Amino acid sequence: MVLQMCSNTAASVCMPSGRRQLQLADFPQSSTGNRRARLSALPCRAMPRESSSVETFRSPFRRAALHAALAAAFGFGGLCVRSVRAEGRSGAAQTSRLSIEQRDAAAAELYGLCTKEGLRPSGSGWTKSEKAQAETLVDALSNANLPWRRSDLVGTWKVAYLQGDLDRRIPFPDLPFNESYQVFGESSVVNIGEILGPSLAVRVSGVLAEEDPQDLVSPKRFRANINSGTLDIGQGSLQVPLPITGLGIFDGVYLDDRLRIGLNLNGTGARVVQVKIAP
Asked: Distance (Å, rounded) from C-alpha 274 to C-alpha 137?
């Protein structure tokens, strides 16, 4: 993300250790005249270095430090945000990135929210503050341009949170017992949407391909050529073929060994947050 000052006024960031004013001098002048901010310039000393688990966020003091840093870096407090993808990852365009500690902390907090009992991907059950918290964390991780480790993608993922609507060929009721999954192989993808829980579900399968196998930094572009579909009855004991084909294009914008964020490009444009439930 390239951050540009919207005005000449300083942006204030309230940190647990006191109040620090971000001045224009905090944003180094580039050859093109833009001023860029890096998260490393923000006073995040309250963030722990030794742990990335959800335990980290039981302290409101540390949680406030993370949120203040993310808010300042991703569009709050008098800053406006413009997204730039670096050409060739080594060209003139550079991106501000989360530090390792901030990345792990944000991912751990988002994972904790997404696995909290009673919260549905559609937003049902979420409080206003929880949803705002999730939106900030999703934005931060999605725009961090982090390394992409393709081995982490393989496995079964459950949809846990949505920014927008899922792209579906058939309407799936958002019932409390319905779930949506994606199963990724090295070169395959299976989408599963439950209609009446696991007893009645739609399954579509296809071939998965990376647009650029040499590109190992998010966002990572994929194409899914869907070539078959079935209506699964009785947890797959009976499968009725469905005429489902098509091309899906999406970006992987964040990935670790238990949390994934994808961006649907040729469907609804939704960001989908998933948690891994099986390798």
From this structure: 14
Tokens of 261: 């964020």
pTM: 0.67
Secondary structure (3-state) at 13: strand
SS3 sequence, 46-100?
CCCCCCCCHHHHHCHHHHHHHHHHHHHHCCCCCEEEECCCCHHHCCCCCCCCCCH
Report CA dihedral (70, 138, 164, 80) to the nearest 10 degrees: 30
Q: What is the mean pLDDT of each run of 10 residues along the chain (279 residues)?
A: 36 40 41 39 40 45 45 33 34 56 96 94 91 96 94 97 68 79 97 94 96 96 96 95 94 98 87 96
Beta carbons within 10 angstroms of residue 18's beta carbon: 7
Q: Which two tokens stand for residue 162?
A: 């949505």
Cis amide prior to 147 (ω within 30 degrees): no
How confident is the model over 222-231, as pLDDT tens digits? 999 999 999 9
**Which helix (H) or strand (E) is 104 found in, with range?**
helix 100-114
Q: How many CB atoms lie within 10 A of CB 121?
A: 20
Each residue's pLDDT tens digit, 122-172: 888 999 999 999 999 999 999 999 999 999 999 999 999 998 765 554 456
Tell me the C-alpha distance between 200 and 13, whole Å.
50
Tokens linked to 111: 């994972």
User: Is residue 101 within a helix (H) or strand (E), and if so which, with residue range?
Assistant: helix 100-114
What whole-number distance in Å separates Cα of residue 95 and Cα of residue 102?
A: 16
Q: Which residues is 248 bridged to in the sheet? A: 224
